[in-house]
Amino acid sequence: MKKLILGCVVFLSACETGGSMGGSAGMHEYLVIGNRMTFEQCRARGGLIIRDHGSAMVACDPSVRGEPVPADEFNHPSAQG
């Protein structure tokens, strides 16, 4: 019985929609790829913003530059995009 329950828990944790952090509008994890600046510095300098649907992680790549993203860009819980 314990193996069955453990197997079900492992299976659900591996599913994309079974995770507890899913695409929720809760807390986000911000990180910068390959640099020692803060996420806000990377965003303000126009770094490429990478956001995966269904994940709480938001990354910024400072080696790819573009137009700076507004600071409140990630505070739209109703937008599914």
Structure, explained:
Strand 2 and strand 3 form a beta hairpin. The chain has a domain at 22-67. With 81 residues, the chain is α+β, with helices and mostly antiparallel strands. It is built from 2 helices and 3 strands; from the N terminus they run αβαββ. The longest helix has 13 residues, at 2-14. The chain has helices at residues 2-14, 39-44, and strands spanning 29-32, 47-51, 57-65. Strands 1-3-2 form a 3-stranded mixed sheet. The model is unreliable at 16-21 (pLDDT under 50).
Poorly predicted parts: 16-21
Radius of gyration: 17 Å
Largest sheet: 3 strands, mixed
Can you tell me the overall shape? elongated
Structural class: alpha+beta
* Nearest-integer average pLDDT: 73
Strand order within the widest beta sheet: 1-3-2
Percentage beta strand: 15-25%
Order of helices and strands: HEHEE
Compute the number of helices.
2
Q: How many individual β-strands?
A: 3
How far apart the termini lie comes to 41 Å
Q: Roughly how much helix do the residues carry, as a percent range?
A: 10-25%
Keywords:
single chain; 81 residues; alpha+beta
Quick structural overview:
With about 80 residues, the protein is an alpha+beta fold. Helix content is about 25%, strand content about 20%.
